[in-house]
From TrEMBL, chains A, B:
<feature type="DNA-binding region" description="H-T-H motif">
    <location>
        <begin position="45"/>
        <end position="64"/>
    </location>
</feature>
<keyword id="KW-0238">DNA-binding</keyword>
<dbReference type="Pfam" id="PF00440">
    <property type="entry name" value="TetR_N"/>
</dbReference>
<keyword id="KW-0804">Transcription</keyword>
<feature type="domain" description="HTH tetR-type">
    <location>
        <begin position="21"/>
        <end position="82"/>
    </location>
</feature>
<dbReference type="GO" id="GO:0000976">
    <property type="term" value="F:transcription cis-regulatory region binding"/>
</dbReference>
<dbReference type="InterPro" id="IPR011075">
    <property type="entry name" value="TetR_C"/>
</dbReference>
<dbReference type="InterPro" id="IPR023772">
    <property type="entry name" value="DNA-bd_HTH_TetR-type_CS"/>
</dbReference>
<keyword id="KW-0805">Transcription regulation</keyword>
<dbReference type="InterPro" id="IPR001647">
    <property type="entry name" value="HTH_TetR"/>
</dbReference>
<dbReference type="InterPro" id="IPR050109">
    <property type="entry name" value="HTH-type_TetR-like_transc_reg"/>
</dbReference>
<protein>
    <submittedName>
        <fullName>AcrR family transcriptional regulator</fullName>
    </submittedName>
</protein>
<dbReference type="InterPro" id="IPR036271">
    <property type="entry name" value="Tet_transcr_reg_TetR-rel_C_sf"/>
</dbReference>
<dbReference type="GO" id="GO:0003700">
    <property type="term" value="F:DNA-binding transcription factor activity"/>
</dbReference>
<dbReference type="Pfam" id="PF16859">
    <property type="entry name" value="TetR_C_11"/>
</dbReference>
<feature type="region of interest" description="Disordered">
    <location>
        <begin position="1"/>
        <end position="23"/>
    </location>
</feature>
<dbReference type="InterPro" id="IPR009057">
    <property type="entry name" value="Homeodomain-like_sf"/>
</dbReference>
Amino acid sequence: MVTQQTGQAGPVRAPGRPRSERAERSIIDATIDLLAEGTSVAELSIEAVAARAGVGKTTIYRRWSNKEDLVVDALATLKPPLPEPLGRSAREDIVRHLGAMLQETHDRRLRCIMTVALNESDRFPHLAERFHEIAVKPRRDLLRSIIQRGVDTGEFRAGVDVEVAMAALSGAMLFFSKWRGSGEELPDDLAERITGQVLEGLYA
Amino acid sequence: MVTQQTGQAGPVRAPGRPRSERAERSIIDATIDLLAEGTSVAELSIEAVAARAGVGKTTIYRRWSNKEDLVVDALATLKPPLPEPLGRSAREDIVRHLGAMLQETHDRRLRCIMTVALNESDRFPHLAERFHEIAVKPRRDLLRSIIQRGVDTGEFRAGVDVEVAMAALSGAMLFFSKWRGSGEELPDDLAERITGQVLEGLYA
């Protein structure tokens, strides 16, 4: 059911022995924990990650030359795979896509880290760029292709502005998740409601 | 043409003599300059504002008890008033509303300060709350009322999900402005395109 990968970056840079994999996992977990507790990327130190993970700093530097790369890999492990389109109707696949976005807002740690990554995009342009590659672009591309397929099959009208339709669908979800208090959960039927409204339009 | 106020907060706390008004304006301008140059709210100091404005710290503290209030007032002076609905068609008023949002993305200083305010909303909840009151809520309320009027007059269908339609319209604009590089300007016809697509829907 969920098979498509969100990006090519996995947490593992080079295949290692089990012990080294365990260390890597501890380092990634420690990074996620620190960021989810509100540590900014600017404040995050390799020392703190090492202490939390119970490894030496050299173990970290052997795999990641800088903390931005470490944060990118930590982020990549948190992003769930995108739901693969079923291809029965564009409407159904859009609901599934927005539903997956909605699920992500329920994951407190993912929400914290995405906030951190977005907030510091000016200071860490490399991080912002990788975040875009891993988390933003694959979602956009998939949603765009679902809408385009709807146009191609005649489910949607020929004149659809695909880029703007994608922005309206994603943007509506972004709008609701952005302005809510971070603790408040969004209604379960939000993906259905957004899809229905944007597909049907407002005109009488 | 533009008359509706975006909030009750003006930059002036108490009517003063011309000299005091000039000092107040210098303090506000200095605050805006520092934030627009990339100083975070956390980093912003009353000392730096005083030095930039050419006034003493006590002149600032006489009007603002803390820097969050100062940032709120600085923000309030930058937000242009919302365009008043013309009431001829909901479509026209929605285009005007989104057009005003688009204009704001062209204002580099406003963009910088809104980014700062949003980025630090966790650390400065009072600032985030005032930002919401001044900049977010009046826009939402106005857009919601325009859509509702369209339903009431029969221009839009009775089943419109007003809240979601508002989110789709605002969210689409947010989507485009958020993921662009901060230097890149959005196309002039974006407000028309978003309005057209969201009002017409996708169905054939």
